[in-house]
């Protein structure tokens, strides 16, 4: 009798130890998550973005002061330009602060965290995780990560079990290489419901730029971190992305990149009906404009995005905006180079160019946060989509073959993959990080791999375009991007093919 009793005791003890280990692991992940979120918020906030911009202005002033008097006299308008620059920085900072005020962090960011250094080194500095807050998991399609806000607000959800570490490179050369990822042990989910949220948080900065008592405690400067300049660069990149997606100035770029995709979807799904709209996934959705446009054309559209920087901003524009042109930003102030005039550099841009909530969204529009590979590798995703649209996305892969394999798997038989973009592999120049795989295929090889995974090419062309470029700059980087439509063969045809 005593033997089974002992066995039971041993088993119970092992279970308790397992539980304890899981609790410890969860605590650690939570602490890492808080740290990375604080870092992102810090990059957006007072001690980073505005300070770095102010430091630039001080540098211009120092150079100006070094000029001989005769040269200074020729540039007598410079001091007033510096003051204008400062006003523009303030305006951008106000916008950013408004945006952060609306952000619902998935964790209590004001709590003390203690993360041992050795472990921290393994986690990407801008790695973003989240845990479920108060959302009801209606689990649409993307495994447990899908989390639908029942009420009126975006919601953050949790996916257990993923643990990839990602250090994507950062730099303006890489289109949208924001270098931050929602991966690691959790995946963030953020979903916009059709009932778009329309409430404003209390304004929290007074006219002197001081934070009022109504502010969220996690915005308190005392818990913000000093972040490296690369993080500030990410904020500047986001500002440029806002123009691409949500300003009239971005229309030309959207016409080059998004319009061909939208026209292709229109012609491929001529007979789509309101009662049963086709489902379209947009991985790497950035700030969400393309996903929204697809939704407005009668598709159940889902954007997928793993960057908290992007998600915070797209959520703000999609969920909070009450009218077109609600905010004014100054996206081009951060470079003195290649300007035709100071007025060009300091010009305001009003955003958004449309009111998203009035744009005519089709029921089911959503944004799912998380790593494309982790979220859409889930068995529930197999054959779930009528169309997958990738725009400036496939070269963000560590392993592009894996992306293609997943795209094929999640498409229905006969479903289409529309792609637009270059092959500027994001991890191609990440040196010295042994674990960072980067498979950099030529276009020819990409097509060969796609054929292997059951695609056939229906349309192919090259499209000349820019990416987040200042349209009035004397320097315009151009891509000769690959556009294609590929269709997933049906297994029946596959088998009957000799
Ligand atoms: C170059 S941007 C393109 C954004 C948008 N499609 C556009 O055309 O403006 C690539 C986007 O993919 C996102 N991304 C990169 N890797 C991802 C991944 N594994 N899963 C989900 N999103 C990813 C990045 O955060 C970034 O927003």
From TrEMBL:
Keywords: Methyltransferase, S-adenosyl-L-methionine, Transferase
Any matching Pfam family: CARME
Species, as recorded: Rosa chinensis (China rose)
Swiss-Prot/TrEMBL GO biological process terms: methylation
Family statement: Belongs to the carnosine N-methyltransferase family.
Record-listed E.C. numbers: 2.1.1.22
Protein name as catalogued: carnosine N-methyltransferase
Annotated signal peptide: none
Renumbered residue ranges of the record's region Disordered: 1-22
GO molecular function list: carnosine N-methyltransferase activity
Recorded superkingdom: Eukaryota
């Amino acid at each position: 009798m005593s033997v089974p009793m002992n066995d039971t005791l041993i088993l119970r003890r092992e279970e308790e130890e397992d539980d304890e280990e899981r609790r410890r692991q969860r605590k650690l992940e939570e602490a890492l998550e808080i740290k990375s979120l604080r870092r992102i918020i810090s990059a957006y906030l007072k001690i980073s973005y505005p300070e770095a911009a102010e430091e630039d202005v001080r540098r211009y002033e120092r150079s100006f002061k070094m000029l001989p008097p005769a040269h200074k006299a020729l540039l007598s308008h410079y001091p007033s330009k510096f003051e204008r620059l400062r006003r523009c920085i303030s305006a951008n900072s106000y916008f950013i602060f408004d945006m952060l005020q609306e952000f619902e962090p998935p964790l209590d960011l004001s709590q003390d965290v203690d993360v041992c250094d050795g472990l921290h080194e393994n986690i990407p500095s801008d790695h973003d995780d989240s845990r479920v807050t108060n959302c009801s998991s209606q689990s649409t399609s993307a495994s447990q990560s899908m989390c639908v806000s029942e009420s009126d607000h975006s919601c953050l959800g949790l996916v257990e079990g993923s643990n990839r570490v990602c250090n994507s490179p950062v730099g303006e050369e890489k289109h949208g290489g924001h270098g931050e990822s929602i991966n690691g042990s959790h995946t963030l989910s953020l979903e916009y419901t059709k009932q778009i949220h329309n409430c404003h948080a209390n304004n929290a900065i007074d006219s002197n730029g001081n934070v009022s008592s109504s502010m969220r405690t996690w915005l308190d400067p005392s818990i913000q971190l000093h972040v490296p300049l690369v993080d500030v660069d990410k904020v500047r990149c986001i500002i440029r992305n806002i123009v691409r997606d949500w300003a009239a100035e971005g229309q030309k770029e959207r016409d080059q990149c998004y319009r061909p995709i939208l026209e292709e979807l229109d012609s491929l799904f001529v007979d789509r009906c309101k009662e049963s709209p086709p489902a379209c996934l947009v991985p790497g959705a950035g700030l969400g404009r393309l996903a929204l446009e697809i939704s407005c054309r009668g598709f159940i559209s889902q954007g997928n995005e793993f960057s908290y920087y992007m998600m915070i901003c797209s959520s703000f524009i999609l969920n909070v905006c009450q009218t077109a042109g609600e905010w004014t930003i100054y996206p081009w102030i951060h470079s003195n180079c290649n300007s035709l005039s100071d007025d060009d550099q300091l010009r305001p841009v009003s955003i958004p160019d449309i009111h998203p909530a009035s744009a005519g969204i089709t029921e089911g529009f959503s944004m799912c946060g998380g790593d494309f590979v982790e979220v859409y590798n889930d068995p529930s995703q197999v054959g779930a989509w009528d169309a997958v649209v990738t725009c400036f996305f496939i070269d963000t892969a560590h392993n592009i073959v894996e992306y293609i394999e997943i795209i094929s798997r999640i498409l229905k038989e006969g479903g289409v993959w529309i792609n637009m973009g270059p092959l500027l592999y994001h991890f191609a120049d990440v040196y010295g990080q042994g674990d960072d795989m980067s498979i950099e295929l030529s276009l020819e090889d990409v097509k060969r791999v796609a054929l292997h995974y059951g695609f056939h090419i229906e349309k192919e062309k090259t499209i000349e375009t820019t990416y987040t470029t200042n349209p009035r700059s004397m320097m315009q980087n151009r891509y000769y991007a690959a556009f294609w439509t590929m269709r997933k063969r049906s297994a029946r045809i596959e088998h009957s093919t000799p």
